[in-house]
Write a structure and sequence with these properties.
alpha+beta; about 30% strand; 4 helices; seven-stranded antiparallel β-sheet
Length: about 160
């Protein structure tokens, strides 16, 4: 079983430099991934019962963005798990939030979320900044709770 090193930190809406750096770091390490979600107080989150969640057409109350690094077998992917239901891609477009250049939308599912793919992932600071912007803007738009202007970021890289 693979072993991973994890790092967690907060990023503010007006200073995404650490997030951009983390996206570039993860993109360069196959087998790595990054998660980002609004820093909503855990006490404000409502749990959906197990049985109801099976039949619900909605995903998470607090959306999570994920970057998975490209590997020799798979392209890089970015995704947003959200609970906003059908037509999330249309709501992004209506809000003026576009996907980063070079990323192709592969999935817009009400429960499994949005997924884009790129052969290489964010290859430079400008690409990573576009991914960071998408994550922050989309998770704020889809969040069912008030977003305090901070995001939790978790980086997971294979040991070794």
């Amino acid at each position: 079983m693979a072993s991973f090193e994890s790092e967690n930190f907060l990023v503010a809406a007006d200073d995404s430099a650490d997030l951009v750096e983390a996206l570039l770091e993860v993109a360069g390490q196959p087998g790595s991934w990054l998660n980002i979600e609004p820093d909503v107080q855990d006490s404000l989150r409502a749990d959906v019962s197990g049985l109801f969640s099976w039949f619900s057409a909605r995903g998470a109350q607090v959306p999570v963005g994920t970057l998975v690094a490209a590997s020799p077998r798979n392209p890089a992917s970015i995704g947003i798990d959200h609970g906003s239901g059908r037509g999330a891609g249309d709501r992004l477009a209506a809000a003026g939030i576009g996907s980063p250049s070079g990323w192709v939308l592969r999935q817009d599912h009400p429960k499994r979320g949005l997924v884009w793919e790129s052969p290489t992932g964010p290859g430079n600071a400008q690409d990573a900044a576009a991914v960071a912007s998408l994550f922050m803007e989309a998770t704020e738009l889809f969040c069912q709770l008030q977003v305090p202007g901070r995001w939790r970021v978790g980086i997971h890289t294979p040991k070794g």
